[in-house]
Write a structure and sequence with these properties.
Number of helices: 6
Strand order of the largest sheet: 1-2-5
Helix content: 40-55%
Shape: globular
Oligomer: single chain
Distance between the termini: 25 Å
Low-confidence stretches: 122-126, 128-133
Number of strands: 5
Radius of gyration: 19 Å
Structural class: alpha+beta
Largest sheet: 3 strands, antiparallel
């Protein structure tokens, strides 16, 4: 495989998406895996910092709705719910949010097994240009 440059990396369409039937809502929704920036913002929103600036506790309020809101998109792949609209989404059926949240986690690489798989596939590649023998 060829070594990629910056332009090739930024041009790559690497985000996964999936259409998920939601009979409770009368149709299908589209979930798009989060970008790295969105994923970091989501994870940061779950941590409450103490007065010393260190994590003091987890903020699990509307965590499923936050996750689903970051991933729920329309046909144009634009988010349907902003961060300010999470409460409205959180008022929906918890079982539906859980089901959608599981898909969103998988698409965004947030499940424990996704992290473990990624770690197992990241073995160093030998470098033929190495000066050490």
């Amino acid at each position: 495989m060829a070594l990629l440059g910056k332009d090739q990396i930024t041009a790559a369409d690497d985000r996964k998406w999936e259409d998920v039937p939601v009979p409770e809502w009368g149709g299908t929704v589209r979930l798009l895996g989060m970008s790295g920036t969105e994923r970091n913002a989501y994870q940061s929103s779950l941590v409450v910092l103490g007065p010393d600036g260190k994590p003091s506790r987890m903020n699990m309020a509307d965590q499923l709705a936050k996750l689903v809101a970051k991933c729920l998109v329309g046909e144009d792949f634009e988010r349907l719910f902003t961060d300010k609209e999470v409460k409205a989404l959180g008022a929906k059926n918890g079982a539906v949010l859980e089901r959608l949240g599981q898909v969103a986690q998988r698409l965004s690489g947030l499940r424990k097994e996704d992290v473990e798989d990624a770690e197992g596939k990241s073995e160093p590649t030998p470098n033929d240009d190495s000066s050490s023998d």
